Amino acid sequence: MPRWKDLPDGLDPRVGEFVTRLRRTVDGDGSSLATLADRTGYGRTSWERYLNGRLLAPKGAVIALAEVTGTDPVPLITLWELAERAWSRSELRHDNATEAVRLSRARTVTAPASAPAPEALAADPPPAPGRRPTRRPTMFLAGSLGVVAVAVGAFFLTDGGPAEKNRTAAGTTTPSATPARSLPPGVLCAGADCTGKDPEETGCSDEHAITADSITVGTTLVEVRYSDTCGAAWGRMVRAVQGDTVQVTVGQVRQSGGITTVGDTIAYTPMVAVKEPGEMRACVELASGERGCT
Known about the structure:
By secondary structure, the protein is of the alpha+beta class. 37% of the residues lie in helices and 16% in strands.
């Protein structure tokens, strides 16, 4: 049974050439996807998508692959840049086509409101001479109650209700809640909700993350990984050994990770919510006693 699946139909030739080169690089190294994931820090599922043309590998993954396989990264990065432009254009065309279909459907299902039928306008006959109408006061009463309900609701939502607590000394109101952040499929948290959580398990890593800063201590690479999608960052160390630890600090918040099993070479910390990756500092302490920070 072939190791790789056929590339998707309609895949841009430049993307196909790039994926083919990735496959050759992995085949030449002989690593399984599980080993590749462990050595590069990108998940096994992500590598399956990259190598089968279902998702374009991020530049960081390409560099990591070249590093762990001893491959010259320049040809791979050159092919990646061509593939990335082709992939972006393809996504733009797909988005435009999807939007056109959505608008077409919206126009189809939207119809102007029909005018009231003449019979409806004449539903209430004029009152008989000398008699007070009985239906109209009832309708007026219901309308009045509706106005009162609206007024009461407005009272509680403005000056007289709980929103009054949101007024500042200058007399202006502040929002009581921040609008929910729209997250891509597979991403499970954003902002403060990500603090203390695993970046892999929440979907914040891989294509949703970049290396914002890095330093090499001894032979160990220490990185600040940042996900704008999740609004969070974490520390990661590569080429580490048992006893090495990495710690990240943002203000008073700290998270730590380390190598506890012989043979493991990659470790990362839980996430911390940040607005900018520059807020975070990553430090490593090696089993050899060497230390360093980004």
